[in-house]
Amino acid sequence: MLRLLEYLVLSTVFLSSWHGVVANPISTDQSPPQRPFQFSESGSDMILTDTVDAAIDSILKDFKTPGGVGVAVVRKTPDAGWNVEAKGYGFAKLDGTKITEETLFGIGSNSKLFDILATGLLISNKSLSPGISWKTKIASIVPEWQLMDPIASAETTILDAMSHRTGLPRHDLILPAETVSDEIHRLRYLKPSTGFREHWQYNNHMYTVLSYLPPVLTGIPFETYVTDFILRPLGMSSSTCAEKIPSLTEFPKS
Ligand SMILES: *[C@@H]1O[C@H](CO)[C@@H](O)[C@H](O)[C@H]1NC(C)=O
């Protein structure tokens, strides 16, 4: 499941307020001056202009990358609408296929944000009975849940799991389990390295646990939940949760 999460792919990289960075490339003398972020007044003043296109192309050239980027600039308009610009720069494939605003990228741990969004939707779901909150204890909703530290096991809340403060270090190299349920069941065998809520320690397994909340509470698989309640309502029709991880042999040889 972790790998499924890691391969949740999106068509674009959202750069809601990064345009200052994009518009002010570090390495060229003819960089346009940096502008402060401004709300679009008419909805017509574009950020991704020819000048910005040229700046992004020159950054790609400086990095000598064979690849490229997808860029989206999303701004609120004064009338509470959205001004969205999306473009692709550079190459998606060795055969010369260009990156467009529909090109899919593996977003790695940025998929954790979708875990959080999905959990937020569950928390605001008034039809769930009993309902849950950020303070709901994982032990009260996930049957497979148990940690070696009895205090962490009993007390870990949804917010603790999200905040990397259960006392468990990464333990990324445990043998992959067949199912999410099995992976969660194995957490009880992993040694904590600090006390509960004592330190921040990055832990991927907790996000696997969070991805289990939609199926355990609504019966809907995580991938379907994210697709139906987040991606599709946002009009992200190309974006998807990958069904399967591409094996190394499927990557083009260079
Ligand atoms: C809300 O909960 C109900 C009842 O379990 C479920 O049918 C529905 O799909 C849920 N919707 C969301 C967005 O969580």
UniProtKB/TrEMBL annotation:
Coiled coil: none annotated. Residues 68-240 form the Beta-lactamase-related domain. It holds the Pfam family Beta-lactamase. Keywords: Signal. Residues 1-23 form the signal peptide. It comes from the Eukaryota. Belongs to the peptidase S12 family. This is Beta-lactamase/transpeptidase-like protein.
